Amino acid sequence: MHAVNGISFDLKKGELLGVVGESGSGKSVTMMSLLKLLPMPPAEIVSGTAKFDDQDLIQLDTNQLRKIRGGKIGFIFQDPMTSLNPVLTIGYQLAEPMREHLDLSRKQARKRSAELLELVGIPMADSRLNDYPHQFSGGMRQRVMIAIALACDPKVLIADEPTTALDVTIQAQILDIVKRLRKELGMAIIWITHDLGVVAGMADRVAVMYGGFIVEEAPVNELYANPKHPYTQGLLKTLPNLEGDRAERLESIIGQPPDLHQKPQACPFAPRCSNTFAHCLQENPSLINRGKNHKVACWWNPDSGEKV
Amino acid sequence: MSSEARPVLLKVEGLTKHFPITKGVFRRQVGAVKAVDGISFDIFKGETLGLVGESGCGKSTAGRVILQLYPATGGNVIYQGRDLTSLSKEELRKQRPHMQMIFQDPQDSLNPRMTVGSIISEPLVEHGKFKGRERRERVEQLLESVGMNREYTNRYPHEFSGGQRQRIGIARALALSPEFIICDEPIAALDVSIQAQVVNLLEDIQEEYGLTYLFISHDLGMIRHIADRVAVMYLGRIVELADSESLYSTPQHPYTQALLSAVPIHDPKLEKTRKRVILTGDVPSPANPPSGCHFNTRCPRAEKRCFNDSPEWRYIGPGHNVACHLV
Predict the structure, then answer these.
(1) Which pairs from B299-307 meet CB under 8 Å and 24+ separation?
(2) Interface test with B, best of A168, A176, A199, A232 (most B CBs within 10 A)
(3) pTM exceeds 0.80
(4) How far apart are the C-alpha atoms of B181 and B134, rounded to whole Å?
């Protein structure tokens, strides 16, 4: 499997980077490998570096990484039911990272746990610390996950499809909380999702992934107003509108997402692209600048119509 | 086209489905999950009626009770003049070819040990339609009509991607030339770039065979695209029903308004200026719904009467009905 292939991006202080892609595009694997959260073996990081505050995360050993995971870098996963331990109280799970990273006493940790639950909008926070995950609803569990991720005042929060398992009205609540917390706490966030709508409302900058590559990266307004990669263009066109004109027929992208078992030689999107020409099948384009802060990995230049 | 003039294919009247909650050795009934709690609507011939709601609102149960996959607790389902709830097993079996279902998860709804050919021909065998070569020919033609290669009959479901498996499920539903198909979240398990392919296919076959759809989904954008009329469900009841156009432009029920405002739009400029109605709290349990209006625990405008009386199903304009005291 070639899940992630030569990805480069940077995250500025306090910025929200949206990472968009379909299932199998490698967006989760990228972020998990940053903190070596994948079981190795079978997974293997073949090459690359990940600089966090001048430290290369990939070179760190397990002990050093433990200090960063859950401490300076917080993680929120998609499914709160499988990422919370069902036999431990919420209070214990909230206090655990603080006792580990911040050396708080049991009492201090409990006090801060209650504050954190209040911060994410859980009523009667103090008494709910003694409850178990199954006593919370899906949306409430995701709030608890956010509280745990925020426990040690992280500089970076990595959120992997945090609202995908939730209903839209609950999703709206969670997005609202994250927006507020971001303003109050000022951490940088990497928001991984397949939902172009969520990213539009949340992100400062967006990276679009396909077949294990970043194929386009731009500030949020620029990306939606002026998508340059045929995949991004296609994706935005396939979505039905909630307002305005109703399309007679949805545009669709033909074919299937790529098979990651083969090492990609050509552009991964070439078999589905309407602009494919000979060179696309021979060499994979790398991410290059096409406009201010706008990077695209495509042999075709949509502005001039030029190829290569 | 005015919807009033069109013939009704299916009429649902006061349909309810309660699942008993039992307790103790004698399985004494101590309560009921009111999954569907008295819903009524008509589906006109040739239209697509969208049924939207969040998880647990009873929309899938409603679909299954309409097809009598679960026996109804109360109410009637009148399909072309016949009440399906009063039919015997054998009569119902004879009725089945007219009404089919497409399921959400193409992984679970296709038997992994059967070839694609036998999956699609199973309904033909069951109802004794076509024999021998004719049957094979029919299966191949069905595969082709859903955009797949006719040589695939000897392959197994695991050899296909999610989108292709959903096409196989659609081919199976089409096998007996039904008039009415319930699509239960047919695209929810598919990737965004594949969803449009499947929706386009559903629209194509609807036009080609003159099908009527009940399209169940939580995806409000896709419902707007595919449905002629939309019914919004909350906690076992329908709270609003209107043609797609007016439901999305002038939603009347506070729940519909909140639901529509909660859907993220793929346009950063619109997103930043949009007003959101953020509902507090969660959906109550259908085993113990609030008295009065089911939405009163989360409604930003709830008044005293909302806690006491169930709102009536009221006509407020051509083809537009709402169940709310405040409209």
Answers:
(1) B299/B254, B299/B255, B300/B254, B300/B258, B301/B254, B301/B326
(2) A168
(3) yes
(4) 24
